[in-house]
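Running log. JK asked me to keep both predictions on one page so they can be read side by side. First protein, sequence followed by its tokens:
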Amino acid sequence: MPALRVDERFVDALAAALADRVARRLEAVRGKGAGLLGTDAAARYLGTTRRRIHELTSARLLRPDGRDGRRPLYRRESLDRYAEAGGGGDAR
């Protein structure tokens, strides 16, 4: 298999072009809101357990952004705010 030899300027230009494309795709996904997350998905997003999400919601440290019947739903932005605020003073 022949080797492809490129200089550093080519690699930098390629990396910049790919970074722009990836950034646009991520922005498109975020722009669509990517929907609300259920408890399991919210737990995965925060790297915790479903039980912990229920505890935080019951303690009103994490508030659902909507509901599907009785099922709480969360936006990623709300989960980010909770985490960025240090978990509402919660060390876990």
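And the second, directly underneath as requested:
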Amino acid sequence: MPIARFLVLGSTLLSFAGSLGGDGPFKFFSVVPCRIVDTRVTGGPLAHAEIRHFQIATKCGIPSTARMASLNFTVVFPTDGGNIVAYPYNAANPAIVPPVSTLNWTGGETAVANGSVVALTANPTYNLSVQAVVPGAGGTIGHLDLIIDVTGYIQ
């Protein structure tokens, strides 16, 4: 008997059709964990409210046909409590950020990590966007370093 299955990723609802035990339209492929982004090495820290766009596909064994990626986000040395939001790159309006968070932390933490499956766009330049929310304290603007490791993809 067919069963409808749904997966919600951020603001994207994907429908999976099929029967229990049957193959669905998407498959998960694991990859050897690989670092895609490390702002301590390239790009420098993200400031409060800054949005950065990243190319995920074609790196670390992720094909350009990947629909989603299994990612581990690590925030290092945030100046204050805050969060990051990871979401599919929106070429039409890259400044629109969904009202969800991927990783939250409190002030005083030196590093905190969280795994997440994030939908990717098929854009040839960018697949993923990340916004840092680190208000800072005492009139200063907060910042953080970001590490993104990939562990697999869905296509």
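Observation for JK regarding the second prediction: Residues 1-13, 15-21 have pLDDT under 50 and may be disordered.
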